[in-house]
Amino acid sequence: MVFFFEPFGFIRSTPVRRVTYADALRFGALHSEVYEEHGFDLVSVRAEPPHHRAALIAKLISQGG
User: Fold this and answer.
1) Phi/psi zone of residue 61: left (φ > 0), alpha (ψ -120 to 50 degrees), beta?
2) How many whole angstroms separate alpha carbon 42 and alpha carbon 1?
3) pTM higher than 0.85, yes or no?
4) How far apart are CA 23 and CA 1, in angstroms?
5) Are the C-beta atoms of residues 57 and 45 closer than 8 Å to each other?
6) Can you give the residue ranges of every domain in the chain?
7) Element (H, E) at 42
């Protein structure tokens, strides 16, 4: 099981993160495609507050996937 976090709709540039939002979306789509090609189950995690995301992940892990 691979968790993919949906974007919030923006990226903050930093001195070490210089990717554009469009590039980040392409990067995510490519990784999603490759994981699926290799037989992984992908779980989309909605753009919600961190505690909601963490709760979802904890729930799915505790259920064994």
Assistant:
1) alpha
2) 6
3) no
4) 24
5) yes
6) 2-62
7) strand 42-45
Token code pair at residue 33: 């495609």
CA distances from 60 to 6, 9, 20, 26, 47 (A): 17, 25, 31, 26, 17
Structure tokens at 5: 């976090």
- Phi, psi of 34, deg, nearest 5: -65, -45
Tokens of 10: 């923006």
On whether the CB atoms of residues 47 and 6 are closer than 8 A, the answer is: yes
pLDDT tens across 30-56, in order? 999 999 999 999 999 999 999 999 999
